[in-house]
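Hi support team,

I'm opening this ticket because the web form for multi-chain structure prediction keeps timing out on my end. I have pasted the exact lines I submitted so you can reproduce it. The total is 1017 residues across two entries, so I didn't expect it to be a heavy job. Is there a limit I'm missing, or should I split the entries? Thanks in advance, R.K.
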Amino acid sequence: MDAGEALLLLLLIPAGAALAILLLPSQYKNAVRVIALLATLATFIDSIYIFALYDYQEGGLQFALRYVWLENVAFLRENGISLHLAVDGIAAPLVLLNGIVAFTGALVSWKIDYRNKHFFILFLFLVAGVFGVYIAQDLFFWFFAYELAVLPMYLLIVIWGSTNKEYGAMKLMMVLVGGSVLIFIGIFAVFIEAGLGTFDLPALGQVEFDAGFSKTFFPFFMIGCGVLAGLWPFHTWSPDGHVAAPTAVSMLHAGVLMKLGAFGIVRLGIELLPAGTEFWMPVLLVLGAIAAIYGAFSALHQHDLKFVIGYSSVSHMGFVLMGLGTMNTIGVNGAVLQMFSHGVMTALFFAMVGAVYDQAHTRDIHAFGGIIRKMPLFVIFFGIAGLASLGLPGLSGFVAEFHIFVGAFDAFPLFAAIGVLSAAVTAVYILRLMGRAALGPFNAKWESLRDLRPYEALAGATLIAGIVAMGVWPAPFVDRISVSVNELPQVEQIGSPVDKLPGTID
Amino acid sequence: MDFEYELVVPEFVMAGLATLIVAVALCFPRLRQELLGYGAAAAVLLLLVLTAVFYINVNDDFANIIAVDNYTVLFRIFFLGIAFFTILASMQFAADRLKNHGEYYGLILFATLGMMLMAGARELITAYIALELLSFSLYILVGFNKLNPFSNEASLKYMLLGAFSSALFLYGLSMIYGVTGTTTYGPIDPDGVEAARNIATQLGNFGAAIPDPALPAAADVRPGLIIGLVLVVAGLGFKVSAVPFHQWTPDAYQGAPLPITAFLSAGGKAAAFALFLRLFAEAFMPASAEWVWLVAIVAAGTMIVGNLMALQQTNMKRLLAYSSIAQVGYLLVGIVALHADTLANSHDAASALVLHLVGYVATNIAVFAALIAFYNRTGRDDIADLRGLAERQPFLALTISVGLFSLAGMPLFAGFVTKFILFQAAADSGFLWLAAMGVTASFVSLYYYLMVIKQIYLYKPADTAASRLHVPAPMTAAIAVLTAAVFFIGLYPTPLFKAIEHSTAMLFPGA
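Hello R.K., no limit was hit. The queue was backed up. Here is the completed structure from your submission:
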């Protein structure tokens, strides 16, 4: 049951593949592609295995594995720093998410030709870093992986990116690393205050931190990690970064990297500092609601496809932060569901935008028109992503947002209303975009457009499978997530959404 | 008294070797010059291996003059390693651009001898003399390219300021002597014979709750002691190039022959910190409350100024000069953290400091070696000259990027782990604010490192005719070993950190 090696493989496969590619002469471009694709496919299968075998009746940390790295030296005591890997019910779906997005990202990167060796090395390190954040149960390695996931972003954007890439890459890098300065300080403080001489997260989770300490240092984690999650007003790096990044990097960036921030708030904030959580969560909820509505209205004004999706990501991540801010089981459940949902959906968006940009060399909505004639498959895929984004029942977005709104109405009805409003605005900009670009009179300029290439279609179909699976059968996700959410301290237990409907008898 | 003279054999051998190599070059002027370099490198490597094999866990302190304990031996190995890689990296450079190879290698060996003695010295005058041996060798080496006006200017500037700082240091030492009446650091004696008078014991009343009437009263000697400490910190501050005593650094780095710049930034700093740490941990610990704020302010200033000044550099050597100033700031945080509630915390801080020092030196030599290889082919050292290096020489591009990311403290590389441990140790000693300042400063540093990496990877070579650069095999091997070391420390520092902790335990016999 507890086959922790499956988790270790999530790190070793990308790292090993990166090393293999490094040793390959750079003219073997196809070999590079094949190795990268096989590696991400292997991690994808591995992530399905982990997700499927996570026992939601038992809950807690599973697949645990520990290699001691440094102990009984200097300020470190037993298990001081150890490579402690395990997943809980919150991390399991996110591991699956990263598996899907990494695999599809490698698929759509097949066409990259310029220095593709370097591209895939950095890409694989990014993938390994993201897996590391989800599965590390040691504060040191958690942060190690967190930084490792940010490290390749600069080069990936600056070399293979487009629009305003030098600016976008530097801004992204400096804002994210600036955020990790706060996390750094928070980690030092937690380590000293706990006085256990270990960075082991479960052990630190047992410590009852002083309320004053908790309240002082919770913002360090909330803002430090929140920056990566597009927390308003520190979100501006995100649209710029999305627009500048190459397709696969945008997919990973919006699809999984931003989730690391929200995940960090759960791992470091809620789990370690409950008293601070209780104190600061309303602030997070308000900031999340602002991000949701602000992102939605900003998206309404954009006419670059990637900017629309970039701001839409800010808006959707706002929902995630709102969900966390409710601090009740349904809301937090919804937040994690939304992380998964937004991850696959936005990856699909970016994959599709990449497919059209490569041919058209523009992403201006007004430049297109009626391209459904030339790219029917593209429009269908893009449309499904759009419908998931605006929360159509039967697709993943509905399940997630429904949970969040029910939770939010229970906690802060006013802000829940703002959230619902921004979901409505989402519908406006998505449908407007579809109408302008995909439907309407055909612009003869686009006579030469070809539909999706097979590998792009495969990537899209894989992502859609994720969207639909969660939309029609959310139970496997909810089961796993809720068991761990219920274990979080300070989360208010409220029953199923049905209990909250008017007219139900308690 | 019975001394185990065999314990200082490496120092004697080093002195003999340095003299020999000058003599050989003088007596056999027709000797092929690169043989001198290979000879020196081989001898240093042999000495390194012998030291590592025969000198672990030995102990003698030669009447409180030079301690040969694990701390000294660790630094001996470390310094010999630095000398080995410096000589290896110098070979091609010296052949192309320098004359008088015998003196060149001889002076590097003399400097290394000075470094080894600095780590071992546990008496003020010996420490001073060892420091001067290093400094004098470096003054000449910096100006070794004597036909180059920059090299001359750098040497003159370095020598004048260096002499001035030595005077400050010496004056500080005389004040300390005046207060305590002794030049011996501390009471530790491996033979169990306690030194009759020593600085640590004489300062005993500073930390003590109940004053000892036999020792000088803290209130009486405080003014003299503080003046002495300020001068010592200023003198050592010059040597490690801490702000505000850093002004000579960029000029000396820029003017010096490139391998000597590498040696300055690695060896010179490492040796100064070896002395700094032993002096402050063994001798001045009881009065740590008197100097901690002074060092803390210098550390904070060094981190801030070093990083901010580095932002606007266009020359690679100057950039690395300011970056090394910033690194000195981080290392000084380790000195500050010696002031802690318990001796165990002080010991942790010392271990963390040495770990960061080793990581920094390995990284810096790797970067410099790659730059030397680049300079040998192109004769250029501006940041803009690195444009398109990824296409002309992917291996050097990778090494420089790895090194710069490591200096910025990114994971996978040495810098992340060593900084993490160093700042955690500082926070443990109660200096969370200084640790916070350190991580913020290193966040700023990422910007200028990224600007260099951008030149390397983003752009095409400026000169379209520029072809692939050739790097000779020994140089490639040296760079590969150093890069591997940067990764190794970054991924598995366990054995190194344990060894360091074991060695620094010598400075804290009570812990």
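A quick check on our side: Residues 343-378 of chain B form the longest helix (36 residues). Let us know if the file doesn't open in your viewer.
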